[in-house]
């Protein structure tokens, strides 16, 4: 994000001021700006921690500014003006960090410069504050260090600002309400007093003992027991800590269980869809592969070739007819010949007379049978010649017959029949093609749909995982982890019992030893000494129980105040919201729960409820202490990212009641126009100034940052 | 927190009533500056005073011991 | 000898200039007969598994459009597998039928011819087939040149080509 440029100035008023922008538009940078001025630190997301200017250095300066300057000084500076309306004065805090740019090199300053100007509005000019102590006190009055964590925080920090199971954050929170440290100091005093009194008493007892040897033994025994008790107590504390951790983890897991269940269900669905997709893809491939085979298997290639078949059919039928005709001709020819030869056959048998006699008769031109003249080419002569020609004709006939040797009709017929059956199928080809195309398209459609569904389910899963801060594995393993933690808790409870009993046992023994000591005493112990010992012991007990009582009542106060906020924020939500309960853990810490009207914990509430609980607690700290909300400004970046719409509005309403001025940065109002309108017009929300910020180049196009700038627009 | 307020929180402890140091109505009346017959209550006052005044632990302990060293 | 068998013993040739076109759309095999599976052709983006397939396609294309394009005499020719190995055989027979239909061969006369003459006629049939196939290949080539996009992102291109006049 880039705020480079001279005139980026944002004004805030009373009420709830909102900076609206989508992810990556620069909301966090604004928060960083506030924080940097006050504390010389910025939040580094990769390290999830604040780091000082000394470490971050030139990264503070925007790439654009660095790119635009060829040489000279480039400075990042933030100026915040705090205006105290009642006292009518202003403080202007400015922090600047510079680098020197030479071609190819950047020289970084070590530190930032920080100045405070004070301006009383009755005067015209502002004065620089030079005294370091005064500077510190001004900073502290703007934002006391004790409560700064509950006034200026980032959404990501909400979880950890109050971790009820950590003594330090818990005590810190309670300390804001009342100085619990004093009670701890009293316990120390009481312990010390009791110790000296007891020591004195014991010494006296020993001195008055009639048996110094026995005394010494008892003494040794006593120290041994005391040591054992002390060790036992330490162990007890450790076990208590472990037990508390296990118990609170169990509860955490139970809450996450509901979410994990949802994730699990979605993941199961995704698996099913993926299987389906695989099957579909296989079918599609088969379909596509066979598609082209159908060109030949289903004879699509014959499309439009009906004419060929018809042409051939004609040709074939012509051939057949002609063939038949030819055969008929042949037959007739043969018949004639046969008739001729059969005619000849009735006159004489073949070769009677023998050919050479017939030749002789023809030569002589005389018939030897009837001995008459047969002149050449007369009828008689020709009749004689006929006898000779007879066998020759026959031979010629067979030679003709032999000439018609090939018969292709079988093959040709086969071709015809093949052609016929194939061409009958040609009419169906178009339908076949269309059907195949249709089913292929259907499959492709199904594949696309399956892909879309998978995408949707996947993004639902990712969103759930992000919202609930679960990882995919954690979601799967919650039940496992739960049973492990549950078992641990059981084990720790057993250990605790054991150790407690041991301690009790040792204390019994110790009492016995003390009694034995007393028995050894000759004479009377001074009354005042006995009383001293008793009084200091009582004092020790009282100091401990009072501290506990006071602490508990502060927690109760916190709980009550938090519930006021929680109820207010969740009033818009229809689903069960329950009540906040801070349950005491074995180690003296607390665990936040949400309980129903019967006092039973409501499980399966989602993460947004739990964040709301924490926010309610944070606000309770400020509101319970009296008028802090009046005096100090809440500045927070995106705490609403886990909420839904209803909660976001409830949150804004409550904030505007608890804090006179607040500045929140949010993406919730970015896309949701309805929500935005609600924010601007709802009478229950004290609205201040509302701005939208948009970058000149959007995130996914942002490879070159040197042209980036931010546009800040006021909506009201 | 004033010394009186601080003192009062200790007076509310059930042990005091149990052991007969105080009765319920007495608690409400008792003010910090009022003298009591109870050694314990005096010890508590010393501790409250010293703690709020910023005395060190050892100093306060000594004062307590001193106050209890007398024959009553 | 039977007519069909003799015709099918022939291995037709194609103009070598069409080689690129053929390999563009045909799966290149190890041996002549083809050993890869149907899936391989699709995966490789090819439409025909063997050369005779595209040849049959081209022949039918040429036949139905009556586009007979003799191979130029100087052209280098490539031969491939005999018709009797073409699958499916009924399609191969159909192609032959088509060629016979288009030829002006006198079937009756054929039956009466001498061996050598019959042989000559059969060769003529083969040449006729080559001419029609060449015509079909030319049509395909022309389409590739004029409208390469037709073949690019269109899985159905050869099916659509069946409709093109």
Write structural notes for this entry:
- The complex is a heterotrimer of chains A (716), B (72) and C (165).
- Helix content of chain A is 62%, strand content 13%.
- Chain A has 716 residues and is an alpha/beta fold.
- In chain A, strand 10 and strand 11 (590-595) form a beta hairpin.
- In chain A, helix 9 (212-297) packs antiparallel against helix 14 (426-468) and helix 11 (355-364) crosses helix 12.
- Chain A is elongated and about 205 Å long.
- The model of chain A has no long low-confidence stretch (mean pLDDT 82).
- In chain B, helix 1 (3-11) runs antiparallel to helix 4 and helix 4 runs antiparallel to helix 5.
- Chain B is mainly α and 72 residues long.
- Chain B has helices at 3-11, 14-18, 24-29, 39-53, 57-68.
- Helix content of chain B is 65%, strand content 0%.
- Chain B is globular, with a radius of gyration of 12 Å.
- The model of chain B has no long low-confidence stretch (mean pLDDT 81).
- Chain B is built from five helices and no strands.
- Chain C is mainly alpha-helical.
- In chain C, helix 4 runs parallel beside helix 5.
- Chain C has helices at 3-8, 19-25, 38-43, 51-64, 89-102, 107-111, 115-146, 149-152, 157-161; strands at residues 13-15, 77-79.
- Classes of the chains: A alpha/beta (716), B mainly alpha (72), C mainly alpha (165).
- The A-C interface holds A 285, 288-293, 295-297, 299-305, 307-309, 311-312, 315-316, 319, 322-323, 326, 403-408, 410-412, 414-416, 418-419, 422, 433, 437 and C 2-5, 38-39, 41-42, 47-48, 53, 56-57, 60, 63-64, 87-88, 90-91, 93-94, 96-98, 100-102, 107-108, 110-113, 118, 155-156, 158-159, 162-163.
Mean pLDDT, all residues of chain A: 82
Helix count, DSSP H or I runs of 4 or more residues of chain B:
5
Helix-residue proportion of chain B: 55-70%
N-to-C span of chain B: 32 Å
How do the strands of the widest beta sheet of chain A line up side by side? Answer: 9-12-13-1-14-15
Low-confidence stretches of chain B: none
> How many β strands of chain B by DSSP?
0
Main sheet properties of chain A: 6 strands, mixed
Percent of residues of chain A in helical segments?
A: 55-70%
Distance between the termini of chain A: 24 Å
Order of helices and strands of chain B: HHHHH
Structural class of chain B: mainly alpha
The structural class of chain A is alpha/beta
Low-confidence stretches of chain A: none
Quick one: which chains have the greatest interface?
Answer: A-C, 45 and 41 residues
Counting DSSP H or I runs of 4 or more residues, the number of helices of chain A is: 21
- How would you name the oligomeric state of the polypeptide chains in this document? heterotrimer
How many DSSP E strands of chain A? 15
What is the molecular shape of chain A? elongated
Rg for CA atoms of chain B:
12 Å
Rg calc of chain A: 55 Å
